[in-house]
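Customer ticket, subject: "Can you confirm the structure for AB hydrolase-1 domain-containing protein?"

Message body: Hello, I'm evaluating your service for our small team and ran a test protein. I'd like someone to confirm that this is what the system normally returns, since I don't have a reference to compare against.
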Amino acid sequence: MAVVAALSARTGLHADNATGGYRAFTRAYVAAAGTLRMQIRVYDEGAARDCLFVLGWGNRCRHRNVQWLIDQLATAYCVHAVELPTHITDYRREWVGPVQEYAADLGEFDLLGHSAGGLTAAHLNADGIGNRVYLSPWWDSDFPVPGPVLDAIASLPITRPFIPIDTLDADAIGNLATAQQLADAPSSVSPAFLRTVFRAQRSLPPARDTAAAFCTLTDAVVDPRAVGERLPADRIQLYDGGHEPFSSSGREHTVETVMDVLQRGPDAL
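Agent reply: Thanks for trying us out. I re-ran your input and got the following:
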């Protein structure tokens, strides 16, 4: 189709037809060391407006529930789905920077970020960003460890993931979470990873007037109190379920509202 050919010629993306019902192209960002760091898949059925969707930590487009959400978005948008690298040591260089670079070429677009993608997206500053929607953004953590102890662990000069995490199970993620999702979820983190995530959380810019967030008060993965600290109540939509609204029962209603807010702004709440 013409729009697909034009997209491929403009971006240098290559066809990837194994990711779902929509025709997808993949763009890979490569770090200075030459290792693959970030994947961006574009789902284009000729929609007039773009949506930059920054996935959460460990989320991949091949996951059934992620693909379900992308399919909903693709009814109204050309979707640019960003898969964040898992084990990082510098959030600006490995998360924010590549997404910022990609966003600079998009023109006008609406922005959606989930979890770590919501943390990354909140740092983005581009003239073309329209409405911003954050799903369970990782703006703070609620680890069962005293803050000073956690800071001491994060200060260790170690980049190898060895600290186990056990919160990414079906009860926490959502009752529709698949076996593949859970198997692909990160099982450990490094002190360097914790350190850079804490820096990202503590250096968040003020929330924009076009921003809204969706969260559940029973989130066991991120601390939803941080959402209330950054946004007024009339720009926050609560839902029942796990950390991933798209992996929880009742997702159809939740995502219908997400689509309304993405297209019309926080006044749609």
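A couple of notes from the result: Confidence is low (pLDDT under 50) at residues 1-15, 31-35. The first helix runs from residue 2 to 11. Feel free to reply with more questions.
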